[in-house]
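S1.2 Input.
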Amino acid sequence: MDKKIFNKKRFFFLSITFFFFVIMLFLYLNVSNIMYNNASILLAIKETKNIRTILSSRYNFGKEIITDHQKKDLDLLLSKLEFYPPKMYLKIFSDNGKLVYQNGRDIILESSLSVTESSRTKITYKKTVIKGERQVVYEVIIPVENSSGNAEWFINILFDLQMVDDSFFNEKRLLFLIVFIVNLFIIVFLMVMVLNLQKRLFISENELSNLTVSDKLTGLLTKDAFFNEMRNEIERIESNGGKFSLITADIDNFVDINEKCGIEFGDHILRNISTGFKESFRKFDFIGRFGGDEIIVMMIGASENDAIVLSEKCRAFITETNFFFEGQQIPVTMSFGVASTENIEPIGKISESSKRNNFRNLMFNSLNALSRAKRTGKNTVVKYSDLSNGNQLNI
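S1.3 Output.
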């Protein structure tokens, strides 16, 4: 997985998580507010129903007449009752909407209820504010019916919501808050877990990619990975022009060294030689392990002579490196063969067979130069253009 893609996925996941967090916070605040309002309504209606039950059981008011004695009795009764939410006033209306009794001060509301046809069959209520004070109140009107089911009079009560004790809602709010925190914890836990899994997946994919692209022993490109890069570069040059040089190198007498000193010592040589190649060639050159002791280098944009210079630098580095086995110095040298694509010109669309031929020809030229270096004394660098035939060969 590309690191940019990984970062984009992580950012997307974090954004989604933050979005759900905001949604949950919004729901918490709104649900909490709705719970508060609904509870206030239920309390106000419950108190109004209780008052209706008490009054209808004790009084049988006429349509428009409440005696002074009944008013005093009502005042005394209401003074003994505890209202929750607190009552601001209580009014009684006759069946034709005439006010016949009031307990509490006169309060002007920005919008108020009135005794209407709807009030004769059901409870009506409204949330409003006191005019000029912006104090939130609930107004409730409830009909009182006679034995025939007709509304004879109406009770109108105004409740002070500002005085409602928040402790009434603490239990429900606490329960919702616990659910909110638990959900938030689950989201955070899942977020951390998914991010860790993505990170582990990213690391695993990189490790897997390195295993398939890099040689385990030397850290150089594998043969397949190197050839894939080489084919891509040949295709680019055939289409757009350009050049690169190919270098194949082989450790001299490596089989004898392995037989004498063992495979572990041979691996030790390979690791050190790989380091020498990395230090001798340019950082953007492609270096791969071609075989057991063969190393191949692709120098993009380099001429055959450029490749000769760095190959000589690498050969000298290896020659001057001291290798010891059981106290005895083991001389290690390498032979190099160099070939170049300088003779390849851009020719437009290339057939697949031409691409394969150019790839094989370049490999053959480099290996042919390496073979000449081996036959002419080893520990040397030979370029393909110096060979006697000087031409590419098709194989």
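S1.4 Remarks. The first strand starts at residue 87 and ends at 94.
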